[in-house]
């Protein structure tokens, strides 16, 4: 089974409680359990990690080199201003897919810019938590394109 790192950024531990009109009622545990099941169906294995701390997410990205075939990341609010997170993603050869539960392009102006998107293979936004599954479904295609090579 090919390993995929799933990173959940700040406040995603509050899924199901935080602004359910925006983020839904599903919990992070629900999302991770569903991803684990789907990954197994597709010959993948997911390691899910959530942190409210930028440095902890950066450490996981650095550790992904040579260990994971892809990264699925929802950077949360770090999306909009964390050049350190952006640089961490750019520093590894592991392809990343950015996911957002809400459509960041239809929300407040400050959410329209993603500093991390330019160093990812793509972005899935606005489809709720199913966006994580769609990102996972894209991983085999990423691998077949170049055994995980990252285009920039």
UniProtKB/TrEMBL annotation:
Pathway: Metabolic intermediate biosynthesis; chorismate biosynthesis; chorismate from D-erythrose 4-phosphate and phosphoenolpyruvate: step 3/7
Top EC class for this record: lyase
Catalytic reaction equation(s): 3-dehydroquinate = 3-dehydroshikimate + H2O
Record-linked InterPro entries: DHquinase_II, DHquinase_II_CS, DHquinase_II_sf
Key word Transmembrane present: no
Entry EC number(s): 4.2.1.10
Chain positions recorded as substrate binding sites: 74, 80, 87, 101-102, 111
Leader peptide range in chain numbering: none
Job description of the protein: Catalyzes a trans-dehydration via an enolate intermediate.
Subunit-level organization: Homododecamer.
Protein known as: 3-dehydroquinate dehydratase
């Amino acid at each position: 089974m090919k390993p995929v790192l799933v990173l959940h950024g700040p406040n995603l531990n509050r899924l199901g409680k935080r602004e359910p009109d925006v983020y839904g009622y599903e919990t992070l545990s629900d999302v991770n359990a569903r991803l684990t099941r789907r990954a197994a169906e597709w010959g993948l294995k997911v390691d899910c990690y959530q942190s409210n701390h930028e440095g902890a997410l950066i450490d996981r990205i650095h550790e992904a080199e040579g260990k994971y075939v892809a990264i699925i990341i929802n950077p949360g609010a770090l999306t909009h201003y964390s050049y350190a997170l952006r640089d961490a993603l750019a520093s590894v050869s592991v392809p990343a897919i950015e996911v957002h539960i809400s459509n960041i392009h239809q929300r407040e102006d400050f959410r329209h810019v993603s500093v991390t998107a330019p160093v990812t293979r793509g972005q899935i936004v606005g489809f709720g938590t199913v966006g994580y599954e769609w990102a996972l479904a894209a991983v085999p295609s990423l691998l077949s394109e170049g055994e995980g090579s990252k285009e920039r």
